[in-house]
TrEMBL record, chain A:
Keywords: FAD, Flavoprotein, Oxidoreductase. The keyword Lyase does not apply. It comes from Streptomonospora litoralis. It is an enzyme of class 1 (oxidoreductase). This is Putidaredoxin reductase. Its EC number is 1.18.1.5.
UniProtKB/TrEMBL annotation, chain B:
It comes from the Bacteria. Keywords: 2Fe-2S, Dioxygenase, Iron, Iron-sulfur, Metal-binding, Oxidoreductase. InterPro entries: Rieske_2Fe-2S, Rieske_2Fe-2S_sf. This is 3-phenylpropionate/cinnamic acid dioxygenase ferredoxin subunit. It comes from Streptomonospora litoralis. Gene3D superfamilies: Rieske [2Fe-2S] iron-sulphur domain. Residues 2-96 form the Rieske domain. GO terms for molecular function: 2 iron, 2 sulfur cluster binding; dioxygenase activity; metal ion binding; monooxygenase activity; oxidoreductase activity, acting on paired donors, with incorporation or reduction of molecular oxygen. SUPFAM superfamilies: ISP domain.
Length: 390, 110
């Protein structure tokens, strides 16, 4: 194998390049990224970056030593617009084309937007550094009232940051309780209560009917007629995998790029990693994770399989994520199903300091913790040993 | 020299945090007791809450691992080493950390 094309220049793309070199690949590694800047880490964007505690330069995923070691053929500031798997060619928006012996799809996901919100000033999503810089600028102008649409982790982190900036902040969540599907009702309630504890208003159970304002947003209208006045609105309403450019490629697309549990697609020389990868296990069940940890860990497995020319390794790590909000660190590992409830094994939920397990049929299937990293680490280790693919 | 604990209170596999000019993690690994700066060099997390295996400590937040003998990170996301500090155990089982002063203080004193 002499050349590998990596499409996507964020964490998963960078981890792919690192894995290729770490596993002895000495050929050409081309990395395509639609942003003009070199890759950066995203988790701080909703936290320290919004607060002005971290700057763009601090977020770089590669330093000059890495650059020298990895010798990447960068194709930044250009978008991949097509893939021809049979000849492993990636078409670029600038008219160029990269051909390689293997292609790794690492194009991530794009934030959802509510309909009829385009072109209205003051309305934001938060995914890229550019998004975060634009939002930070607006939060610093005067003392805007902020409405965050969506009460999941990104929404909660943004609300927490806005509150830390001293801004009047409201979180609007369509479901009866945010995060209950992931965390179970009791842990989800503890997370939801963090908003009120810290002076942020949380409105649950009513969907948004639209935004108010002409030219610039003035508020969020809910289906029950409530109006939440806001000069800045942030939408944290999920993301969809960036697979549009793969239409017509012949790759199987199903809310992501379908690959086996070793990250390899039906075209043996094309892999998918990170947010965009939908892993199908041997029983046909499939899963896609939008977690930093998956984007960081999957590439090493994908690369090992690509270099071997066959799926010899499965990605078996337990899904893991963390969230920092209102000075509380939440950690979660595993997968719950509706009805799975947490059993506290250390600390207490009321004190916002606990470690808990979720059990099903006598086995621990997930673990959660607030401000209890030590027992959580041990619980997560236990889960990893029992992990099954997809 | 900082008194950390009595050896009896730090069984193999366990770790604790002591305060010097910065927090220090004291860890009882398979082959002895080590001390390193407690805060992961990648992001704010406490290594004494991490996973101790062999002579490596893994950060509880993002799984960066450090070699306790050298302080060097063995994998991403950490890139910078943690400082290491020498440890003495007295005859009566008291564990002392010889905390190095931070570089900025050392420069100021020079």
């Amino acid at each position: 194998m002499r050349a590998v094309a990596v499409v996507g220049a964020s964490l998963a793309g960078v981890a792919t390049a690192r894995a290729l070199r770490a596993q002895g690949f000495e050929g050409r590694v081309s990395v395509v990224g639609d942003e003009a800047r070199t890759p950066y880490d995203r988790p701080p964007l909703s936290k320290d970056f919004l607060l002005g505690k971290t700057e763009a330069a601090d977020l770089a995923l590669l330093d000059s030593d890495d650059e020298a070691e990895l010798a990447i053929d960068w194709r930044l500031g250009t978008r991949a617009v097509g893939l021809h798997p049979s000849r492993r060619a990636v078409a670029l928006a600038d008219g160029g084309e990269i051909t390689a012996d293997a292609v790794v799809v690492a194009t991530g996901a794009a934030p959802n937007r509510l309909p009829r919100t385009a072109g209205l000033a003051g309305v934001h999503v938060l995914r890229s550094l550019e998004d975060a810089a634009a939002l930070r600028l607006e939060l610093a102008a005067g003392s805007p009232r902020v409405a965050v649409i969506g009460g999941s982790f990104i929404g909660a982190e943004i609300a927490s940051s806005c509150r830390a900036l001293g801004l009047e902040t409201t979180v609007v969540e369509a479901a009866e309780a945010p995060l209950a599907g992931v965390l179970g009702t009791e842990v989800a309630r503890a997370c939801a209560e963090l908003h009120g504890d810290n002076g942020v208003r949380l409105l649950c159970g009513v969907p948004v009917s639209g935004l108010r304002g002409e030219g610039r947003v003035t508020g969020v209208e809910l289906a029950d007629g409530t109006l939440v006045p806001a000069e800045v609105v942030v939408m944290g309403v999920g993301a969809r995998p960036n697979t549009g450019w793969l239409a017509g490629s012949g790759l199987e697309l199903d809310d992501g790029v379908v690959c086996d549990d070793g990250l390899i697609t039906a075209f043996g020389s094309v892999a998918a990693v990170g947010d965009v990868a939908r892993l199908r296990g041997p029983q046909g069940a499939s899963a896609r994770a939008e977690h930093w940890t998956s984007a960081s860990e999957q590439p090493a497995v994908a690369v090992a399989n690509l270099l071997a020319g066959a799926t010899l390794h499965e990605y078996r790590r337990t899904p893991y994520f963390w969230s920092d909000q209102y000075g509380v660190r939440l950690q979660f590992a595993g997968r719950t199903r509706p009805g799975d409830e947490a059993r506290v094994v250390e600390g207490s939920i009321a004190e916002r300091s606990f470690a808990a397990v979720y059990e099903r049929d006598g086995a621990v299937v997930a673990a959660a913790a607030m401000n209890r990293p030590r027992p959580f680490t041990r619980l997560r280790r236990g889960l990893s040993r029992a992990a099954v693919p997809a | 020299m900082i008194y950390a604990c009595h050896l009896e209170d730090l069984p193999q596999g366990e770790s604790l945090r002591v305060m010097a000019d910065v927090p220090i993690a004291v860890l009882h690994a398979d082959d002895g007791i080590y001390a390193v700066d407690d805060t992961c060099t990648h992001q704010n997390a406490s290594l004494s809450d991490g996973w101790l295996e062999g002579c490596f400590i893994e950060c509880p937040l993002h799984e960066a691992a450090f070699d306790l003998r050298t302080g060097a990170p063995t994998c991403l996301p950490a890139k910078r080493p943690v400082r290491t500090h020498s440890v003495t155990v007295s005859d009566d089982g008291c564990v002392y950390v010889h905390a190095a002063v931070t570089e900025s203080v050392a420069e100021g004193a020079a």
